[in-house]
Amino acid sequence: MRQRLRRIGSAVCRGGLLLSLALGGPSLAGAQADADAPAAAVEPSLEEESVAAEEGSAGDKTRPSPHWVDSSHAYATNRAQALAQWMDDFFGAPIADAERANSFVRAILIDDWDERDGHDPKLRLRGQVNLPKISSRADLVFSGEEAEQTLTEEERAQENDVGVRFNFRDSNRTRLDATVSLRSGPALLPGVRFRYQQPISENSWGRFTQRLQYHTEDGYRALSNFDLNRILSEDTLIRWGGRLRYREDKEFWDWNTGITYRRWFKDHKDFPSAIEYYVAMSGRDKPQTFETNYRIGVLYRRQFFREFLFYEIEPNYNWRRDEFEDKREGVLGIVFRLEVMLDESLIRTER
User: Fold this and answer.
1) b/e per residue, 315-346, with b = 16+ CB within 10 A?
2) What is the CATH number of domain 2-350?
3) Measuring CA to CA, which residue among 300, 252, 258 is closest to residue 281?
4) Strand, helix or coil for residue 254
5) What is the C-alpha separation between 208 and 144, in angstroms, rounded?
6) Where is the composition biased (Low complexity) (predicted)?
7) Residues 94, 98, 102, 108: what is their CA dihedral angle, to the nearest 10 degrees?
């Protein structure tokens, strides 16, 4: 088992070497708000983050934030963290949604096509509802809202559950929460989640998340996520991310690692947009350690017509091998997404 874990760790770390070297490089110009950018696309300044943190520590949740993209930057401590969190918010990353303070819902219509399996249309819902009558720290969460961003589209679609989450601690560096969810089957999933984040330099920032769950039908689960972020300019970011997971019912470890380059476009006056280029690889350790997929792709996301409407186009290419004995196969694919995203602050703004 130790040798197996060492092989997995070595494979996961390959993608991080380049970015780790970059973290030691000279500091570049940090991200700052563009005066002509729309309100929805403005990255919060460090001064704004400090004020938000003070208000958050005082427990003041009565005043709505100016716009939904600013709703989860309460603890940004440097430019890398502020830009990384803004990008996660704009792309609708599940890891960002898991730490939102307000109620929200995302309805996403997806058409996932590839030349091997054809079209796979689906509707995915996720969100949370605050439960102030129970506790200011309690939320009702549903439909895989807490699924980590390194999960594949297929894995996210399987994370359909409804539950109650209680936030024990939420500070500058750490967050600890517990969730009890009900999943189709039916099955009960109690679990805890711990997050630690730390500035590395003025333009670099790291984050680690650990989740432990117990599935009443499938047994124990453990999921570790980590990412390193580096600002390249005021509107671009590079990230190395990795995931290591164990499920008792599968009896093997699987992993995923990749590098993404994100850029925010400021030239759209009415509605912001951003693009992501990525390369990734995934694998598992049984029957022996091997790579199940190499993936390369581009994701373009844009807000359109109204502040709560988004579309995404994601062409990609995969070199898959489902089983160790299989021959690797190249598969071209493209994913279309249409999303409606509503939360309390946006509704108030519209009024």
Assistant:
1) ebebebbeeeeeeeeeeebebebebebbbbbb
2) 2.40.160.40
3) 258
4) strand
5) 20
6) 35-44
7) 20
